[in-house]
Amino acid sequence: MASHRKSRTPGARVAGIRTPALATAALTSVALLSQTADAAPGDDRPSLEEVEKKVGDLYRQAESATEKYNAAKEKTTKQRKQVDTLLDDVAQRTQKLNEARAELGSYAAAQYRTGAGMPDTATFLLAQTPQDVFDQRQVLDRMTGRQKAAVDDYVIQQTETMKKRQEATESLRTLTETQGDLKTAKATVQKKLADARELLSELTAEEKARLAAIEKRKQQEAARKAAELARQQAAQEQAEQQEREEAAQQGGGSSEGSGSGSTGSADTPPADSSYAAKAEKALAFARAQIGKPYVWGATGPGSYDCSGLTQAAWKAAGVSLPRTTYDQVDAGTTVPVSQAQPGDLVFFYDDVTHVGLYIGNGMMIHAPKPGAYVREESVYYDGESAIHSIVRPA
């Protein structure tokens, strides 16, 4: 059966294109052009999202290197004190060794002068009277006892001095190695920060504006998560308060859990009134630092890095925390995020390289990163998965 479809003439056009092959090629070209409309011609630069991720990674790597720098610096300070103590000890022992040596020399000279080395017959013949012989023997016997004690003291001082010198030499070697680690960590921080600054400097004004918009959306999401956590904590506190009231009415357990803060779970100790008082002092100090710049390795008073701020804040409350995030994470009791209380330490990332001070309602005070200032921010500022743990010090 013949087809009723009318065949096209060779000269017919479709949307100005003579052949299907040319049409396909043109449409492909249009699609490619639309995909690269935002990129400069012939430019293989990374996308804005890739730049943002790379900069974020560099800042985190720099913060990790900062904590290693802090640890090496603290270790260097302790080792330098130890070396100084050992060197002082060696100097004192050397003085005692010299004194023991001088005492031995005086005994040798006295022995020569008194003729202590002469045979007994000669000593008897040269003596004026028998009493002189007896007296001289008594003196020599006492002198021999003192000489033996002097020799023993000399040997002891010599052995101890050599031991301390070896300890000092080993400590100096270890100190030199630690100083090398300190130098390496410092160079790593500087390199990561320089790379981040270079990436940001290559962005156009439009790209920087888009990057700021991305950051704003992240902050809005973080604020939403913080508000959600605040609602959960408020509901939990209300339920626990109701349980306490019911227990009190029934006449049982009225004296338990009546302090301020959450009662916690079976595995989580309550944030009692003593902790709350200390936490209030730590938070007051932290709030007073808001607006001060983040500077890696800084512990105040004009600038801070993240662990320097938390250490200084709790020090103001009379609680001594270690210097680095790696050690601070072990300086208390771990609690669930849902039971975080003001004053708790919030740690971030799998390698525990950032920390902030929880202030309640899903918010914290922290020193964020280079180029930023101490500020209040949601604990979800880098996403929920970034939170490593919550630790209650004191």
Note down, in words, how this protein is organized.
Helix content is 60%, strand content 7%. It has helices spanning 20-35, 48-114, 120-126, 130-201, 205-249, 273-288, 306-316, 325-328, and strands at 333-335, 345-348, 354-360, 363-366, 375-378, 387-392. The longest helix is centred in the middle third of the chain and has 72 residues, at 130-201. The N and C termini lie far apart (95 Å).
Structural class: alpha+beta
Task: Sum up the overall morphology in one term.
Answer: elongated
Provide the gyration radius in Å: 39 Å
**Strand order in the largest sheet:** 1-6-2-3-4-5
Mean pLDDT: 78
* Major beta-sheet overview: 6 strands, antiparallel
Sequence of secondary-structure elements: HHHHHHHHEEEEEE
Helical proportion, percent range: 55-70%
The tally of beta strands, per DSSP, is: 6
How many H/I helical runs?
Answer: 8
Main attributes of the structure:
394 residues, alpha+beta, 6-stranded antiparallel sheet, 8 helices, 60% helix, elongated, hydrolase, hydrolase activity
In short:
The chain has 394 residues and is an alpha+beta fold.
What is the topology?
Elements: H1 20-35, H2 48-114, H3 120-126, H4 130-201, H5 205-249, H6 273-288, H7 306-316, H8 325-328, E1 333-335, E2 345-348, E3 354-360, E4 363-366, E5 375-378, E6 387-392
Antiparallel strand pairs: 1-6, 2-3, 2-6, 3-4, 4-5
Helix pairs in contact: 2-4, 6-7
